Amino acid sequence: AGSGAGEDMRTEISTAAAFVTRLLRAAGGVGEEQLRCFRECLQEAMHEHYKHHWFPLVPSKGSGYRCIRINHKMDPLIGKAAGMIGLSHERLFQLLPSELTLWVDPFEVSYRIGEDGSICVLYESPQPGGKVAKQLESRTSCKEQWRIGRSSPSKSYNMMTVSS
């Protein structure tokens, strides 16, 4: 294993940063050099933000703290990285989904677009000790879930409480 929490979260952070960067690239209008810089700045900001909130033995602990969220407000980590390449919050709101939740947890990075969208997994690795966190075979694909999710009435879940 790596030395300390910082080592272990590299894959998760780079997966999450690459995902947000891909969303920006897909929207267009941002140069490759800016995107590269954005991704590096975002990774750095996340690393700094998460370093005392990363618990591989209890992956869900601190999950609310590590959650990246765009919901009528811009996530401060994304905002900070975008500021480094001269993108305003207004511009970000045009380029990125207006409802985006990105969970960056030990061994799993997942996201949801829209309040009642499906949760899609970007990265998943088995936890050390041989226990596989979830059986992937039993999970329906994201596209199918999206369809299923659309046909059911919208529910609001209180997924996590953040205690200070």
UniProtKB/TrEMBL annotation:
Xref: PANTHER family: ANTI-PROLIFERATIVE PROTEIN DOMAIN-CONTAINING PROTEIN, B-CELL TRANSLOCATION GENE
Q: Which SUPFAM superfamilies match?
A: BTG domain-like
| SMART domains reported for this sequence | btg1 (SM00099)
Can you give the residue ranges of the Anti-proliferative protein domain?
Answer: 96-115
Species of origin reads Sinosuthora webbiana
The record's gene field reads Btg1_1
Q: Which GO biological process entries does UniProt record here? A: negative regulation of cell population proliferation
Describe the family membership recorded for this protein in Swiss-Prot or TrEMBL.
Belongs to the BTG family.
UniProt superkingdom: Eukaryota
For this UniProt entry, which residues form the secretion signal? Answer: none
Give GO cellular component annotations, separated by semicolons. Answer: cytoplasm; nucleus
Q: What is this protein called?
A: BTG1 protein
